[in-house]
Amino acid sequence: MKRFVQNLLNWYEANRRTLPWRKTKDSYRIWVAETMLQQTRVAAAKRYYERFIEEFPTVESLAQASLDRVLKVWEGLGYYARARNLHCAAQIVTQEHNGVLPKDKRELLSLPGIGRYTVGAILSIAFGQDEPVLDGNIRRVLCRVFHVTENPRLRRVERRLELLLVRLLPKGHAGTFNQALMELGATICTPRVPRCAVCPVEELCVAKRLGVQSELPVSAPRRALPHHEVAVGVIWKGDRLLVAQRPPEGLLGGLWEFPGGKRKPDETLEECLLREVHEELGIIIHVKRHLTTVQHGYSHFRVTLHAFECNWRRGKPQTLGCSDWAWVRINQLGHYAFPRANQKIMEALT
């Protein structure tokens, strides 16, 4: 095990990528980076991280910002619950911890959006504590090097990997070790075609010796993703468009969108749109013409958005199925944070 650790650390020292969050020990900035890196590639996270930190350089500045502004800066990065949780947790840290992230594991875990992975990253990288980190990259490396042939997402297998990491951790250097493991998984021990020939621990890898490195880690069979047909209205009233804000909880919470919803089995798209807009906002509209169709995928389902240009007929919008609404000119749409699928509809308007 000592050889594995030393080879890994030597390789990391010579080959690690230059990334903005590796230039700081500021716990807030490391927290932001590790939150963004969940379910996001490094190249995309890097761009958004720099923009986010420029806008909100401290915990206090994030806490004082409106959620609308936070979501707008996060716009396009996806998984918006991360942004909502960051904002909420920043307010708690400001109010209850004098603007400083706690160094205690239990206190960190009590903050919204912070789980075991983020806690391990913050404590080891920012505070120098001997805490392990287990993410997808590290799971893959450990499963291959130590030939773990069960699904690492199973809790008992995950616990086995966590105990292995505790044994491997070089005391006083956990932050560097954790980042080295993540770097190895991201750049060398990749999912489909691992670059074994340049791997610093190739000679220690049991999976490579057995020729099964591409078969590990084992994963559960993928289920077919549900697909939804959605009708969306680009609703005009004079020179203004109607936009609605999604409720703060759930998928895309707090973002703005063109009103609409899922089609029922016995409905036409036009009938669906008339019903959804009335249920959501309490208004009557006239559907004019089909504008565009957008295919979009989320982690657990797929959608086809059918956008229609419409005219408002009567009724004052109400917050029946949304948090807020607004009539805006087309050049004002950029002031609001929209999901990516709705941005594609906006492109069809210009």
Automatic annotation (TrEMBL):
Its cofactor is [4Fe-4S] cluster. PROSITE patterns: NUDIX, NUDIX_BOX. It comes from the Bacteria. Keywords: 4Fe-4S, DNA damage, DNA repair, Glycosidase, Hydrolase, Iron, Iron-sulfur, Metal-binding. Coiled coil: none annotated. Its EC number is 3.2.2.31. Residues 226-350 form the Nudix hydrolase domain. One of its GO terms (molecular function) is metal ion binding. GO terms for biological process: base-excision repair; mismatch repair. Adenine glycosylase active on G-A mispairs. MutY also corrects error-prone DNA synthesis past GO lesions which are due to the oxidatively damaged form of guanine: 7,8-dihydro-8-oxoguanine (8-oxo-dGTP). Belongs to the Nth/MutY family. This is Adenine DNA glycosylase. It comes from Fraserbacteria sp. (strain RBG_16_55_9).
